[in-house]
Amino acid sequence: MADVVWKDRKRIIFGLPWTFTRYSMTQEKLIIDTGFISRKEDEIRLYRILDISLYRPISQRIWGLGTIRLHTADRSAPEVEIKRIKRAKEIKEMLSEMVERERDEKRITAREFMGFGEMDEDEDRND
Questions:
Q1: Number of folded domains in the chain?
Q2: How far is CA 60 from the centre of its chain?
Q3: What is the pTM of this model?
């Protein structure tokens, strides 16, 4: 696996990382690994992230946590939450910068994502 630039776990009460959800990020992708006996790994390419927001209710702020919400152009994971992590605001800013850098490197423009998820009438008739 490429060099991990950030990793954390979803946290529970008192901000303790006693869960089976692990997050990691490389220069190119975000990986969400969940489960204990049966494990599932979701991978989202950074350039496919369309929108990033930070959610910090009082119950999370007390423990220095926050949740980052992502809207993506990924069909298998159109909405993703990086739940209850430490340094959430800092991680959100880092993620935002990395998304822009990936888009610039791959020469991806917003136009690439316009109409994402909508079928063209011609495509619909041909199926």
A1: 1
A2: 19
A3: 0.82
